[in-house]
Design goal:
GO terms for molecular function: nucleotidyltransferase activity. This protein folds into two domains: about 5-140 and about 165-180, HUPs (Rossmann fold); about 205-345, Nucleoside Triphosphate Pyrophosphohydrolase (Alpha-Beta Complex), CATH 3.90.79. Helix content is about 35%, strand content about 20%. It is of the alpha/beta class. Strands 6, 7, 8, 9, 10, 11 and 12 form a seven-stranded mixed sheet that branches. It has a five-stranded parallel sheet with strand order 3-2-1-4-5, with helices on both faces. The two termini are about 35 Å apart. The protein has helices spanning about 20-35, 55-65, 70-75, 85-100, 140-150, 155-160, 165-175, 180-195, 250-260, 265-270, 335-345, and strands spanning about 5-15, 35-40, 75-80, 110, 130, 205-215, 220-225, 235, 240, 275-280, 290-300, 315-320. It is built from eleven helices and twelve strands. It is globular, with a radius of gyration of 22 Å.
């Protein structure tokens, strides 16, 4: 692309967890080649977790604080949810930009840097030009989050971040740390790190296989509230790790029974099983590379059986499907999207 070309809109896409100097430089390059900039903030509806410590609104505020008054006037922030389906994700992004600009034919340039497989999306948007800004430093969000969680004291963490994030981000973190989230996130980060360390000596990166059960009766779906990290306190569908001597289906039925007490005759469960899908996005789980087989059971029109949370579930309950969109930000990992795949929730 001709560096002198001027566009109506530049688009920058990122999770900005947490916002750093390289991202600020990227936004400023976008504003140098376009009159306006749309910042699409990814993972906008994900629950708060070590990987996603800040909400959409918090990230918008952190970025705005780093911009000048003139820059703020030219930047618009757009929430972009995870769908774990690239074609749908690209379509959502382009629709959001078309609604913002008022036309699908506006002159748009996507600004970013192709560095690895996580940035393959840069060439997935038909009709948009691409401006590769090149390497803007060796700053990585995961390493910055690690510094935030492992610094011992807040000031030690901020000292480790200094020089890699805008000064305004340090002040934002001082204020944010007064909210009741950081201690829980640090604990969950430590528990995940301990789990990862157990596999550090493996000759190959581990790939885990899990199962999940989506159970529907009439207009209700069976959910649990997780009793353990990761995702303690968040909503999920019943599930867990596959056992050595079980099929995926057998493990799904067993986990369903163990976590909720839900039990029917084997013939009834087999008849109710309508579909199975594999969810294998590399980033779907904070545990690492986890591939799950999700089974969909539709029990039709019958009385809701009694259930109770047990094993890894602190709670089990029937939830009206119509209420799921309002609960999206309370779900663990990609479990809302597993439900959407079978139930066609059509979130707003």
């Amino acid at each position: 692309m001709d560096p002198g070309t001027h566009f109506e809109w530049a688009v920058c896409i990122g999770r900005f967890q947490l916002f750093h100097d390289a991202q600020l430089a990227l936004l400023r390059q976008a504003l140098a080649i376009a009159g306006r900039c749309a910042v699409l903030v990814g993972s906008a509806r994900q629950s708060r977790s070590p990987r996603n410590p800040f909400t959409f609104a918090e990230r918008v505020e952190a970025i705005r604080l780093a911009l000048t008054e003139d820059e703020r006037a030219r930047v618009t922030f757009v929430p972009l949810r995870d769908t774990w389906d690239e074609r749908r994700w690209v379509a959502d992004a382009q629709q959001a930009v078309a609604e913002l600009t008022g036309s699908a034919r506006s002159r748009v340039v996507l600004v970013g840097h192709r560095k690895d497989a996580t940035t393959d999306y840069l060439h997935a948007f038909p009709g948009w030009s691409v401006h590769d800004v090149g390497r803007l430093g060796e700053v990585h969000g995961k390493a910055l989050r690690a510094a935030l969680y492992t610094g011992g004291t807040l000031e030690a963490s901020l000292a480790a971040l200094s020089g890699q994030v805008p000064p305004s981000m340090l002040e934002f973190l001082r204020a944010w740390a007064q909210l009741p989230f950081l201690a829980r996130l640090k604990q969950e980060w430590a528990e995940l790190a301990e789990e990862h360390d157990k596999w550090a000596g493996s000759p190959y990166p581990p790939v885990f296989v899990t199962v999940d059960a989506v159970v529907r009766i009439r207009d209700q779906v069976l959910l649990i509230r997780r009793g353990r990290a990761p995702g303690k306190g968040l909503l999920a569908v019943p599930g867990g790790f596959i056992e050595q001597r079980e099929t995926a289906y057998q493990s799904a039925v067993r986990e369903l029974q163990e976590e909720t007490g839900f039990h029917l005759l084997p013939s009834e469960m087999e008849h109710a099983c309508q579909a199975m899908r594999v969810f294998d996005h590399p980033d779907r789980s904070q545990r690492g590379r986890v591939i799950t087989h999700a089974f969909y059971f539709d029990l039709g029109d019958r009385m809701l059986p009694e259930i109770a949370g047990s094993d890894d579930a602190a709670e089990a309950r029937w939830v009206p499907i119509s209420e799921l969109p309002s609960l999206e930000e309370q779900f663990h990992d990609d479990h809302f999207h597993i439900l959407d795949a079978f139930l066609d929730i059509n979130p707003a």
